[in-house]
Structures are given as C-alpha cells and as structure tokens.
Sequence to fold (240 residues):
Amino acid sequence: MLKIETKGGNLLKKTLSDLEQRQMPFALARAQTLTAKLVEAAEIEEMARVFDRPTRFTLNSVFVRPARKGGPGAVVWVKDYASKADAPIRWLLPEVDGGERQAKRSEKLLSARGILSSGRFLMPGGGMTLDSHGNISRGVMQKVLSGLGAQGDKYANSTDSRRSRRNSKRFFVLGKGSKSVGVAQRTGKGSTGLRIMMAFAARPTYKHRLDFYGVADRVVRDNLPEQARQSLAQAVLKAK
Fold:
C-alpha cells in the first residue's frame, strides 16, 4: 500500500507565521490528496501501456483514500473488494510484485465440485472464444459452470435431466486416463464435434510488469512540494 506523507513539518513551522501554522494541517492534507489523484492517473496510464487491452474494470481498480487534517496521509492502492467478481488485488498484485496467481472464483467453484484438482488452474482452450480484451467472458464462464453443475447457487445450474444430457451443446469434463485435463463442449458427432473450452494447467507465475511503486515515487517527487506550496498559499489567503 502506498501512503503519501509530508515530512519536515516541524522545521517548516519555525519559518511560518501563527496564521500559516494554523492553516498548514489543512493545506498539507489537501496537497497529499491532490498528489494522490495524480498518482492514480499515472498508474492508470501505466496499466494501459504495459497490459494487453486491459478492461475498464482493471483500469478502475486503483483508488484514492483522501488525507485528513492531522492524519497519516493519503493512500493510493488497488481495490480489495468487488461485488460480483474477483477482487482486483487478487490478480493485479502479482503483476506488481511478481509471484504466483491466486485461485479465481470459478476455479474455487470447480475445485469444490471435485472437478479441478488441487494445484491446477484454468487456461482457455483452443475452442474458447475470447472477448475483445483476450479474456473468457463472464457470460461464457457462467454457462460452463452451470453446465458442469458447479455454480454456487444450485438453482443456477443446468438440470441433470435426460433432456439436458442429450443437449448437443452440453459441457463435460475431459479426461486422460484417470486424470481430468480440461472442459469440452459437444458440438457434433465424433471427435470432430468437440470444442476444448478450457485446459487444466499448473499455477501461473507472473513476472514483475507493473512498476506501481516506481510510478508513484516519481509522481510524488515531482508534484508534492509544489502542491504543498500552492495549497498553503491558498489556505492562508482564504483565512485572511
């Protein structure tokens, strides 16, 4: 987590008038918050540069917590919550620090159903149609989970009726011997009527790609002193 703080406050107070000293906590909080917003914009620009066709969800994953008078400073970080999807921090943090990716919601559901073995993760198969960002769309993933009976809500799963089993578009787990290797969809007769939708692979490991801290350090260094000067001057003028 990145915190934007202002140091040297005691030394600065010695050179300020009584009025300026009273206004300084407000001015510094404002300067920290404005600088944090500049950091947020720079991080979004960097993500658009280093990632391949990032989604709007990815670009909106950075947030700013404004500074308060006398508080520890402003905060710039990646959201650790989401209403109907994986929290961005779960898959974006490995791009910042490097390392192994954590399991997504879909992988947890398939593991709970006994379909995905421990230590295995999902990768798009050759028959999977990806969206404009190169990802598996949420709608397609929901259909796969439903077809495999792996939805968290049992009423969202396809039924196991004879009619459902005869469905020419149904999904099933593809095995090699006693080992599950992926998910396929039946589209016709014979081996030519199969689409490999997803493969079960080893845990993905990411290299450091997003220089989150380096970008933030540059923006803070270049902007915080001037933001502090302008905010203090504005606060003193308003108080007078």
Q: What stands out?
A: The radius of gyration is 26 Å. The chain has two domains: 2-98+207-239, 103-203. Residues 2-98+207-239 form one domain. The chain is about 45% helix and 20% strand.
